[in-house]
Amino acid sequence: MPESWDELEAACKACTACGLAEKRTQVVFGTGSREAEVLFIGEGPGQQEDLKGEPFVGRAGQLLDKMLVAVGLDRSKIYIANIVKCRPPQNRDPLPEEQDACLPWLRAQTKLLAPKIIICVGRIAGMKLMKPDLKITREHGQWFQRGHVLMMATLHPAALLRNPNQKPEAFKDFLALRDKIKEICTHTP
Ligand code: URA
C-alpha cells in the first residue's frame, strides 16, 4: 500500500478490486484536512457524490454540514471518507465483500491521518469498524476506545431525513463530539 497521501489517492482512483468499479463515475476517495484529528466515516457514495467525486455533498451531506456548523465545527478541519469508495447501485447497502475489498484503502487513510477520534456515520460504518452487532438506535452516542482512538457511531443523516424526529438525538451526539474535541484535541476548532 502506498505510504503518501498523493500516491494512495492515485492508486485508489485506479482500483478495480470489486464489481462497484464497473458502474462508478468517479472513485470518492475522501476530503478534508490531512492534518485532521477527527475522521468521519460514512457508508458509501450516493449519486451526487459519484458525480462530484466528493463524500457527503448530496442532501444527507448538506444536513451533516448543518449539524457540524450547529456545534461550531468546521468541515474543512476534519477528514471525511466512506467504507466503500464507489457508489453501490441504487444506493443499496454495500455488500460485505465490497466492504472488505475496499477496507485496505480506509485503513491506509486512517494510518496516514492517525486521528484521535473516529465518528462512524450510520449503521454500516459502525458495524464494520466498531462492533458487528451494533444496534445503532440504542448505541449511537456511546464512546468506545479502540487502541489509541476514541470511536462513536451516530445516526446517518439520510436516516434523519427519513425520520426527522430523531434529529435531537443525533444533535446530542454532535454536542458530545464537540466536548470531546475540546477535551483531547489540540488543533481542531
Ligand atoms: N452517504 C454516505 O454514507 N456517504 C456519502 O458520501 C454520502 C451519503
From TrEMBL:
Report if keyword Nucleotide-binding is assigned: no
Alphabetically ordered keywords of this record: 4Fe-4S, DNA damage, DNA repair, Hydrolase, Iron, Iron-sulfur, Metal-binding
> Please, which domain of life does this record's source organism belong to?
Bacteria
> Belongs to which family?
Belongs to the uracil-DNA glycosylase (UDG) superfamily. Type 4 (UDGa) family.
Which residues belong to any copy of the Uracil-DNA glycosylase-like domain? 29-175
The keyword Phosphoprotein belongs to this UniProt entry's keyword annotation: no
Name of the protein in its database record? Type-4 uracil-DNA glycosylase
